[in-house]
Amino acid sequence: MSTTHIRARARRGARLVPHIGTALIVGYCLVPFYWMVVSSLRRPTDQFSNAPFPSPISFANYAAAFDPHNGFGRALLNSLVVAGVTTTLTLLVAVFAGYSLARLQFRGKTLIMTLIIAASMFPPIILVVPLLRLFTDIGWINTYQAMIVPSMSFTLPLAVWNLTAFFRQMPAELEKAAQVDGCTPGQAFRKVVLPLAAPGVFTTAILVFICAWNEFLIAVSVVNRRDMMTANVIVSLFTGQYKYDQPFGTQMAAGVVVTLPLVIAVLLFQRRIVDGLTAGGVK
């Protein structure tokens, strides 16, 4: 074999290495979800089987997950309410905060940005006891606001930081041109800036919703009424036929139902999410 052929093969092999590495990483990340789907489609009597495919396919676990006794349907609605309200309120605050930090010049601006990003680094576990004591005193236990307000404290830093990067990318001349045409600063923001920032707001909304939908620690700490629990909490409380056995198949089915909407949203809007996470990285 000639030296030219050897070099050509080496170049082709070098080009394949990134693709092979990407495939391995994607496979490693998707295997747990694949096994969860497969386990959810097994018959309850086959839940400890190690076969890579369910045979025969059974939807008994899904039927058991939505049994009225489990309250899973109500829990999904609770999760939707908590995540939806958290996303809406977070965006309302983050849009104005992000725009102010991107456009206004004032003393301590860098310190504020540092504090915002530092706030997201505190582990939620340290807030559980103080929040539980506070919510008990003000009568917020077993309420939606007891889950929404703490969730906002976790999602706001991400939203503010993300939207600040988006607004910084937008030329300030847009608002000036709108004001020359007769708009007030508020009208320029509402009619010019906000529509152009819609992709960034949309991306941030997806990220905030995913974060709020997946929240577990606060929800399990401040709610003890079954009809107020979110889906993540209710799944952990599933019991088997005899109240003592662990219903792995039913939990896997519920896990698929909870996870699938997020997977679909990420697959559909992955480009927007990546753009949102990398906004401001390149001038």
Shape: flat
CATH superfamily of the largest domain: MetI-like
Overall strand count:
0
- The CATH architecture of the largest domain is Orthogonal Bundle
- Count the DSSP helices: 13
Q: Please, what is the average pLDDT? A: 84
How many domains make up the 3D coordinates? 2
The percentage of residues in β strands lies in: under 5%
Taking all Cα atoms into account, the compactness measure Rg is 24 Å
The description of the largest β-sheet is: none
Uncertain runs are none
Q: What's the helical proportion of residues?
A: over 70%
Seen as an oligomer or otherwise, the chain set is: single chain
Q: Topology, pairings included?
A:
Layout: H1 3-40, H2 60-65, H3 72-103, H4 109-119, H5 125-138, H6 145-169, H7 173-180, H8 185-196, H9 198-213, H10 217-222, H11 231-236, H12 248-268, H13 270-278
Tags for this model:
283 residues; mainly alpha; MetI-like fold; 13 helices
